[in-house]
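Entry 12.
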Amino acid sequence: MDGLGEARGLEGVSNVLQAGFAKRKVRLAVMQEQAEAFSPHITRLHERAFAHPMRIVLTDGADMRILAATRTLVQESAIRPILVGQAASILPHLEHMGVTGQVDVYDPGEDPRQHELVHLLRSQLEKRGKTIPDQSVLYAMASEPIYSGMLLVQAGLADGLVGGATSPTATVLRASIQIVGVDPHRPVVSGAFALLLAERLPAGQDAIVLGDVAVVPNPSAEQLASITINTAQVAQAVLGQEPIVALLSFSTYGSAQDASVAKVREALQLVRDRAPALRVEGELQADAALIPEVSVHKAPGNTVQGRANVLIFPNLDAGNIAYKMVERVGRATALGVILSGLAKPVNDLSRGCSPSDIVNMVAVTALQAAQK
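Predicted 3D structure (tokens):
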């Protein structure tokens, strides 16, 4: 074979190999999504959430992942999806799927209710002391899908919202704080992840909730107390279990002294004052929170006893690193970001989310709405 023929031959082999690898990658992705979809954790989540006839806004209505998730929700649940976007782009897909009558579409450019939402936007901005732009800017702002969706929730036309499939977390947070506002009782917005574990822990936990892992870089003791109570409520809603909470540190019961340790102790006292029925302990190292045998030796008599299913971190560095390590190294399935501290249920998707991720976050949001 001459040089040119040899090069073409190698190129052909390379193309075949690349095609084979690409197909294998797709098959593996499908298998992984199917495995996640049928895991017992997800089955329990769906069983609890899908019975609630909640109206949940999906702000990226024309995205094919959102549409695929919508079909699943309609076929398997009592949840009523509200898709935000151009009706001309969305309706043909819904008709093709045969679900037009079971899904609401909100088109900011066509729906007559948009005028009312613009007025609501103005009032919400005024209430929060924001500079009010002129009317044309208000209309443009209210027409953005993330703002239209938030306004539908604030107006009582929807029970919760899932956004972020095509926009960063900061955009979702900004819109939610401006429109929906914070919970007046615990006005600290934070983000949690529910981690569905590949193997049970020694005390039997098969899922844990971690917070804050997304929002507050270095919370004060006051903020940490609010994050703790809010994250416990997330665990109650998502796991359907009594929250057993550990405030984590590099110290256990005074084994080390530092300003960060003192902060955790102060937060613990605030939590006990504000939520006396909550089963909470601190400060604990992670092994004392999760392993009964270690807990007995490091913190005798503590109420958690190595059975924690909610872990609260002293800062965002620790929380974010920990959830990614458990997800990637421990092969856990992560559900999040689950936001708390807002007045109404709003949750954020990763821009790399799959249809099953979207279905799961809608389920979480429906459970939070039912809890409200």
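Annotation: Residues 230 and 340 are 6 Å apart (CA to CA). The chain is about 50% helix and 15% strand.
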